[in-house]
């Protein structure tokens, strides 16, 4: 419902001739007000304000506009005197006055603070003082989201608005009416101009529509609410930027809930606009129109003022587009066109080149199913072409692909072969005038893993099938044609029933790579192949010079080969090659994940790195895009803030921080170097005297503690019990524990089991780090803990044993990186304190069902430790 305002009363709107004030005035009138006083520090200065006031007057509203500075007591008294002299007593105040002058914090002067504080702080207080003894229907303060979330270059503005929030709380304490609304930016005018709104839009902070905003204000008043924050934010995009440098607990829960509730569908409804505009113009004009549309998107991505500032021939990279911007641009195209064209963007990084090639992949004719003729089974998905829906029509198929319903098999094969010849030839860069031998192997034509991925995309576009392995399992034009015709005739074009070759996407079968590892293969992404380790070793030495060379190959094989083969899977890596060397790398550590009652195979994406020489080529973004297409459900835990931002822009969800809990065992050693020596010694003694460590070590053990040489079926039973308390976690059975903590090269772990009788009650895994330049004290880490999390006494006992073991081995501090509310509570109860988290779980839920997606994107559902991903590496 909405409030009803008194026709016989006066309503005062400060800042009343600004855009927000005028919207408020119209809203007040719409709900019954007939007497308004609008104040402004400079009076009416804009023609549109005059027109708005005139419209109100013509509607029979008594409107008084007064020039008054609400931070000046004399001006405020003059306004109230005028109202008191009228026949309509004051019934309500909407304080919307404000000044916003963005200034970097280091440059703020007292004058800047005074200018911003005047209308908000002084004005708000004067209005409060002058209305304390009056009977009002409402007293509304327009605050800002800057006081809630903060805002760049607006520390003083946020502080001024925070005062209004406090003022409203004080009025409520006094029994006076008061409501404060912390508004996000308004699209219909206000503090944020068009340029600022565009900047906000890029990070998911959308401008509020005035009508919607004021409707919500009315509901707040009817509900009697004292304060609220009203914003229109896409949390999946906003949190990536907002939490790029640190965790923001304020939005942790809200962000996850909103992200789950508003998870975007893979195809945007906005796709019809571009396709419709292109289809509406003659074929000869489509290239120019598409280039114009692309220039606008590139300009928006790069922050250019006008599309004309984008040179059609200039490389995106030369124009300043980095990996983050490239991911943004790829996302924009996905939204505009309703499909993924990432390969084209990376291969043709200029407006002119991209427009030429992209036009051949757009479906402007909505071609129907190859065999059934039904729109529901479209063989040319939104993302294939009219100029090349295209390639089949252009290649000479009578009536296009939609005319294949009911044709004899020989004719169907001829038409499918024509489409394949055109698409494979274009992907491989073959001369269209040269005939393609139907029995020639694709690898002999130059097809490698990367080109196979391109062809796979074309097969999905034109036939509704997926999987790059198809071109290797059916390695000639004749073989692939026969396979497609048979599959389509049997199954139709349902993508969920086609292309399941048995070979993991993104992993070429043996012999798929046209050249041996290390040979010159041009530029692009390739998958795992036997013998690639030598190239990987050279890459890692250049990319991570601090890693011990003797462990590079063993650890790489352990992480990516052994992890996959442990689960019966093929290894997954993405290696970006430029000539005879690798310049980019990403790997997948295969794991089994418990998600509620379901267990599914997935992987941690790790070791994403691009050599310095190629970081301006969007190689990292290319690797992540390809990995996402090949592995639609994946996890990440060790990315930098920039990488997290790229992942979120590519459709991943930031789920929860990895909490860091720390216990000081020998505080004087931890403080050494941070405080003067005598102070560190004294503080250390004081902390030790009151330390929870002392109390924990005095407690009697309730279980026997033994070191574990290798895990066995007893630990499988332990995981079965522990998993009942966990919704989402990597399966920590004996197979995982042995692979992770027994067989890991270059790493030493202390593996402890807590035993009672014949039963293993818990497992604790620790590791230790010697002092170095960054940490001058010895650190111990609780890398993993397997135990029923609902058993508080057992958790406390396990942590006590971990502390005792760490202290006995000379650790000065013990840390536990983790995520789970029960474990956090147990750590705190045992004397651990939380530090600022540095890592965050990011999940690509891919094509998971909505119910499962909601489970894996809820932070409270997850159990994580330092043993997840590869963040325990030496």
Report on this model:
The protein is built from 31 helices and 23 strands. The relative contact order is 0.06. The strands form four sheets. Strands 14, 15, 16, 18, 19, 20, 21, 22 and 23 form a nine-stranded mixed β-sheet that branches. It is α/β, with parallel strands linked by helices and 874 residues long. The two termini are 61 Å apart. Residues 255-271, 366-405 and 491-521 have low confidence and may be disordered. It has four domains: 10-233, Rossmann fold, CATH 3.40.50; 271-497, ACP-like (Non-ribosomal Peptide Synthetase Peptidyl Carrier Protein, Chain A, Orthogonal Bundle); 523-629, 3-Layer(aba) Sandwich (Aminopeptidase), CATH 3.40.630.30; 658-865, 3-Layer(aba) Sandwich (Aminopeptidase), CATH 3.40.630.30.
At a glance:
By secondary structure, this protein is of the alpha/beta class. The protein contains 31 helices and 23 strands.
- Indicate the low-confidence ranges by residue numbers: 255-271, 366-405, 491-521
Radius of gyration: 32 Å
Q: How many helices?
A: 31
CATH superfamily of the largest domain: ACP-like
CATH topology of the largest domain: Non-ribosomal Peptide Synthetase Peptidyl Carrier Protein, Chain A
Total individual domains: 4
Find the structural class using helix and strand composition. alpha/beta
Main sheet? 9 strands, mixed
CATH architecture of the largest domain: Orthogonal Bundle
CATH class of the largest domain: Mainly Alpha
Number of strands: 23
β-strand percent reads 15-25%
Shape: globular
End-to-end separation in angstroms reads 61 Å
